Amino acid sequence: MSQDQYVLAIETSCDETAVAIVKNECELVANVVASQIESHKRFGGVVPEIASRHHIEQITLTLEEAFTESNIELDRIDTIAVTEGPGLVGALLVGVNAAKALAFAKQKPLVGVHHIAGHIYANRLEKEFEFPLLSLVVSGGHTELILMKEHGTFEVIGETRDDAAGEAYDKVARTLKLPYPGGPHIDKLAAEGEANIDFPRAWLEDGSYDFSFSGLKSAVINKLHNAKQKNETLKPEDVAASFQESVVDVLSTKAYRAAKEYGVKQIIVAGGVAANQGLRSALHQKFAEEDIELLIPPLHLCTDNAAMIAAAGAVAFNQGHRAGYNLNANPALSLERYGQRKQ
Ligand code: KG4
Ligand code: ZN
């Protein structure tokens, strides 16, 4: 008789304390996210020390809520997955230690998960993967094109050389005096404006799948500064629309080219910026005529959550990966190396 498998996951890499339970790799039965955004807003970004303290306050409550929401007891859990990196070290440590304590107390297996692998696997809660697939990861800390030929292996074919896409959104938003995190605010503003300012697009060398957003960010800041000095008025919605068009153009064009070159069956979009309406519609347009399936997670699975860590952790567990009680937070964990490890 086959028995259902339950994976409990904890995610505390940045400013969300999250706990989730996933059944049989793909079925979400609990998904609790305690966001700290309000506490960081007045500083215009995440303050690491404040993040760690909030995680300590929230971790037990979010765990209890996940058990209540799913009606599943800790004894029934088969393995405990936790984000081991990358992220803020003090924040990661809270999740890693909570997971180790639970695993030790209940003698359950422990699995470490890479945060970006999690963002990618958020999509598997919606749709089965078909390989080879290409993933466009766009978050506050990452902008990467990742090729997957099978479960659990990751080949980074392009990455940002400076700012991440979300970081550029947040910095431009700050210049436009919009609240933190700025991505959703720019997205909304952009929908009301016209992309009538010609901002640069960093295509880089021919054939390169790398990204660069710092030049664009500086161009926006300079444009606003010069207009102010000349007493010209620029409509913020036009600045937002022009900036967004430049980001979306580069992201969607490079993703499209890579998907064709590597002959992938699916293209997956992951990370907080996957919530961006401009990016979503540009990708839908680009792939509409192609025999490549486009997967974009629902909004609540785009930003940080533990459901994605459970989905990636379940696969790692079933592939035989186990972490020991020496599992540590690894703020600079490499995705490729994570995918290559034997245990
Ligand atoms: O994946 P995520 O929740 O956290 C990280 O792992 O970084 O991504 C957060 C980032 C922030 O920079 C935020 O501004 C951006 O995602 N973001 C957006 C949108 N929603 C969130 N950027 C553009 N448009 C959006 N609608
Ligand atoms: Zn993230």
Automatic annotation (TrEMBL):
<comment type="function">
    <text>Required for the formation of a threonylcarbamoyl group on adenosine at position 37 (t(6)A37) in tRNAs that read codons beginning with adenine. Is involved in the transfer of the threonylcarbamoyl moiety of threonylcarbamoyl-AMP (TC-AMP) to the N6 group of A37, together with TsaE and TsaB. TsaD likely plays a direct catalytic role in this reaction.</text>
</comment>
<feature type="domain" description="Gcp-like">
    <location>
        <begin position="27"/>
        <end position="310"/>
    </location>
</feature>
<feature type="binding site">
    <location>
        <position position="304"/>
    </location>
    <ligand>
        <name>Fe cation</name>
    </ligand>
</feature>
<dbReference type="InterPro" id="IPR022450">
    <property type="entry name" value="TsaD"/>
</dbReference>
<keyword id="KW-0963">Cytoplasm</keyword>
<dbReference type="GO" id="GO:0061711">
    <property type="term" value="F:tRNA N(6)-L-threonylcarbamoyladenine synthase activity"/>
</dbReference>
<keyword id="KW-0408">Iron</keyword>
<dbReference type="InterPro" id="IPR000905">
    <property type="entry name" value="Gcp-like_dom"/>
</dbReference>
<comment type="similarity">
    <text>Belongs to the KAE1 / TsaD family.</text>
</comment>
<keyword id="KW-0479">Metal-binding</keyword>
<protein>
    <recommendedName>
        <fullName>tRNA N6-adenosine threonylcarbamoyltransferase</fullName>
        <ecNumber>2.3.1.234</ecNumber>
    </recommendedName>
</protein>
<feature type="binding site">
    <location>
        <position position="119"/>
    </location>
    <ligand>
        <name>Fe cation</name>
    </ligand>
</feature>
<feature type="binding site">
    <location>
        <position position="276"/>
    </location>
    <ligand>
        <name>substrate</name>
    </ligand>
</feature>
<keyword id="KW-0808">Transferase</keyword>
<dbReference type="InterPro" id="IPR043129">
    <property type="entry name" value="ATPase_NBD"/>
</dbReference>
<keyword id="KW-0012">Acyltransferase</keyword>
<dbReference type="Pfam" id="PF00814">
    <property type="entry name" value="TsaD"/>
</dbReference>
<feature type="binding site">
    <location>
        <position position="115"/>
    </location>
    <ligand>
        <name>Fe cation</name>
    </ligand>
</feature>
<feature type="binding site">
    <location>
        <position position="187"/>
    </location>
    <ligand>
        <name>substrate</name>
    </ligand>
</feature>
<dbReference type="InterPro" id="IPR017861">
    <property type="entry name" value="KAE1/TsaD"/>
</dbReference>
<feature type="binding site">
    <location>
        <position position="183"/>
    </location>
    <ligand>
        <name>substrate</name>
    </ligand>
</feature>
<feature type="binding site">
    <location>
        <position position="170"/>
    </location>
    <ligand>
        <name>substrate</name>
    </ligand>
</feature>
<keyword id="KW-0819">tRNA processing</keyword>
<feature type="binding site">
    <location>
        <begin position="137"/>
        <end position="141"/>
    </location>
    <ligand>
        <name>substrate</name>
    </ligand>
</feature>
